[in-house]
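Quick start: read one record
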Amino acid sequence: MAAQGSYQTKQISDLLKTLGVSGILVLDSSSISLRNMAGIFFPGPRSNVAPAVVKWHSCFELFGGIVKWFDISPGTSHDSNHFPDLATLVGKLIMFDLGYWDYALLQSIDAVGGFFLSRVKSNATVWIIDVVHGLPRTAIGKELFGRRIAKGQKIVEFTAPLGNSTEPLRVIGFWNHNKMILTFSFHM
């Protein structure tokens, strides 16, 4: 069994080296409904459906499942307000969902030397700087969500700035079979 463990450790080490990161973190939150009386301390997002909700925000190390950070908040608090200390992200890739999407936060991760992977909010303004794959060159200089994607296109890749930044980031779109749409992700 030790041989398998050391083989997996080498694979993980090789992956991290290939990605150029020192670790991979996964961040998410879970909402837990409470008794209505708890709404005084943990108000829920919908008083008629869930008047009392607590959110548990947690950040795990992908390989090993170790909890690196966690926070507890009322259900009404936006996820992006509950994020690990940015200093702990230097050299690490952190993956998170749309609840944490915030241009200032993403730019802060970049500023400390961290990397991120997140889906793109559908209301985000994303201007195409350069096309790598899956879009016509005429898409350059145009907004992503105003573009028609060719039917059957499985992967779209291009560069785009993040918010008001001029530094281009990699954006990849993958076909989502469940929703029958392309799902886009920013990659730092």
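Residues 2-19 form the longest helix (18 residues).
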